[in-house]
Design a protein that fits this description.
Layout: H1 13-26, H2 39-46, H3 50-62, E1 66-68, E2 74-76, H4 88-104, H5 109-123
Antiparallel strand pairs: 1-2
Helix pairs in contact: 1-3, 2-3
């Protein structure tokens, strides 16, 4: 698994890592049953603290995306084509939280739309 951490980003490292694992699942680079690198190996590969990688894996486990067996590796338990484990309600709550933060920071609706569509273009094609 190829992971790149943006050290200049304001996004915490564990969230960047979590997002990249989710992206690998969505794009089909990781599938149900695939093993993830051990926490120690991924920490070495990314130059992150063991606790940071562990926090990311725990977040993914809490969302029902991966499972972590004691004294074993983590592996993907969600089928990307049937990723109903990530509830729409949770996604809506996350979006609302982001909108509240944007409102507090004084972002305009037009700025939010532009940002949203730029990010949307990264993951969706015009035919979808």
């Amino acid at each position: 698994m190829n992971v790149t951490i943006n050290r200049r980003s304001k996004t915490p490292y564990y969230q960047q890592l979590t997002q990249q694992v989710l992206l690998a699942i969505v794009t089909g680079n990781l599938n149900k049953g695939d093993h993830l690198p051990s926490i120690r190996n991924l920490a070495a590969q990314t130059n992150l603290n063991l606790h940071t990688v562990h926090k990311s894996y725990k977040e993914l486990q809490k969302k029902g995306i991966i499972t972590i067996k004691p004294h074993s590796r983590a592996f993907v338990i969600v089928d990307p084509s049937k990723a109903t484990t990530i509830s729409l309600q949770q996604i809506a709550m996350n979006m609302e939280q982001l909108l509240i933060e944007a409102y507090i920071l004084g972002m305009k609706k037009s700025q939010l739309k532009e940002m949203f569509y730029e990010i949307l273009k990264k993951y969706y094609t015009e035919s979808e």
